[in-house]
Amino acid sequence: MGAPENPSHNLRVSAERLWGNLMQAATMGGTAKGGVCRLTLTEEDRQARDWLAKQATALGCAMSVDDMGVMYARQRGQRNDVPPIAIGSHLDSQPTGGKFDGALGVLAALEVLQTLHAAGYETFAPVELVNWTNEEGSRFAPALTASGVFARVFEHDWALARADRSGIRFGEALEKIGYRGSERCGTRKFSAHFEVHIEQGPVLEREGKDIGVVTGVQGTRWFECTMTGAEAHTGSTPMQGRRNALIGAARVIEAVDAIARAHPPLAIATVGLLEVRPNSRNVIPGETFFTIDMRHPRDDVLDAMEHKLGDAVADAASALGLSAALTKIWTQPPVVFDPDCVECVRRAAARCGYSMRDIVSGAQHDSAYVARVAPTSMIFVPCRDGISHNEAEFSSQEQCARGAQVLLHAVLEFDRLLAHRHGQK
Ligand SMILES: [Zn+2]
Fold this sequence. Notes:
By secondary structure, the protein is an alpha/beta fold. Helix content is about 35%, strand content about 20%. Strands 1, 2, 3, 4, 5, 6, 12, 13 and 14 form a nine-stranded mixed sheet that branches. Strands 7, 8, 9, 10 and 11 form a five-stranded antiparallel sheet that branches. β3 (about 85-90), α3 and β4 (about 125-130) form a beta-alpha-beta unit. The radius of gyration is 25 Å and the shape is elongated. Zinc ion binds near residues 101, 102 and 197. Zinc ion binds near residues 90, 101, 102 and 135.
């Protein structure tokens, strides 16, 4: 005997309404090539924000804005003392961005609110749409500004003082478009946070999967290496006894690639910058400087990769008579999403009959920061050729709708979990 039918199980988002909203949003900052240029806190961003607020208000949602310009649209539940289930993403774009990166997550959240509203379905906890400010970091660096403040990674005053290339500060830009709220960013509590996003990679499309159940965000470690040998004349210096710093770099570059390949399938490692001194055709290179970027979802694997890198540098240096200095300059630890949230996404996708696979995000997202302060997970949908940060970025109406449908049911799954925890139903 099956479980008694729950009326919420039949709720369906409207693919047409969601698509209409995506196309409407894409007119605000729309480019000639069909992309979007909606840099954070510009006039185009203000237009999109105002439009979003109007849509949410029409559903009876209570709007608020915090001092980082983060917008919250809250739909009440049965128990409004319980922190809301947050759903959202970002409306800002790259200068030559697409219609889907960020906008899909915000408008899928709007679609969830519209579906619940139209069905007259009251959740146990409130459901809250969130539009995070400056995810992209194209106008103000760093990226993920507001979610970083929310998660107490960045200080308020430091964030407000970030300046764009023309010297306008983040705080001034917020005021100029009327989105500097009074609520202190980070004081609000969430029961959970779910974000729909295009994959920005080729995996789901290649495997023909509808949904990526995002289990976390990979970690990153950045290193800099300087290898020093001896400059000498290329014509008069025999091969014997040369101390060529570029050969050292070449060996390490090969080793970096091999280290990633030795930890398949998720390890990635790249030397993307190389300087040679004096960089002259008839001087044996006396010094090289290069960078190493290593990524993997697990810290223990990153530790092993880092160890191998140290060995490779030491081996190359000793074999070639060079001195070497390897420095780790930046670490972004891997993010593991909340098991309950991940399970809600998985169950939601199964309930909807969609094909799925677990996936680790290669790109950074607001959810990676929010995960530090609230149970969080993400839902990926395929995008054509894995392309994003590009005007050609594309996901179909059906692909977008599946993302929103899984978001809706992940929210309902988590809502049942909350009701259960509070001893209801
Ligand atoms: Zn994005």
